[in-house]
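Teaching assistant's notes for section 4

Start the section by putting this record on the projector. Ask students to predict, before seeing the second block, whether SAM-dependent methyltransferase will look compact or extended. Collect guesses on the board.
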Amino acid sequence: MPPSRLAREAGRQAFGADPANYHDARPDYPDWVFGTLRSRCALGAGTTTFEIGAGTGKATRRLLDLGARPLVAVEPDPRLAEFLRMANLDPALTVQVSAFEDAALDAGAFDLGVSATAFHWLDEEAALAKIARLLCPGGWWAAFWNVFGDDSRPDPFHLATRDLLQGSANPSTGERGIPFGLDREARLAALKRTGAFDIVDTATSVWSLVLDEDRTAALYATYSTVSLRPDRDSVLAGLRRIARDEFGGRVVRNMTTSLYIARRAA
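Reveal the predicted structure now:
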């Protein structure tokens, strides 16, 4: 029997209990992602931008630094939204505490829309239809993910913790045995089905994240499938023990970063 799935509404409130730990423990996005936004998606000075599910701002700060202004960040969790505001005291940034479905954004007003490791929490078809309405002709949409895991490489820590972590899945798991952010065929097909984009493209990179036992526990504490468990503390203690006793305090997680971009047709 496949694992149960966290409801979208529950998942959207799963990350705000400790925003500072989330911001510190989650890895940054590779530089090539933002380089692509600059070279392909016209990110630069004065790019009118919206960001879906901005969280604590792991991508927001980079967007602001590269010229996204004004930038409207949409974040449904008020705790994450407050952290985002306080960490980015930039007059170009506006934070809307709202689900994207309900966000008040002007149609045709944006040069760029972005979502970083958050788009799987939305209904893809409905969200893409709204995104297309918000972008001006020639505007760009970009969704990217840092995905934990890569089946093409050995992953001993994942195998060692599989029984401990059994439980609910979340939408990032995907529907076809492929993580949502890595299901190239499905994501590109959804973009094309809108009929709103004249260019769609994707790129990926693989890399490694090296963690000690404390950083391992801190990272897993940010996973919705861990943070919402009633036995969260014992699971984190178990992860810490495995990292220390079976891996000598050095855990290597396989990472894949994926990026999907699409240009709004005239």
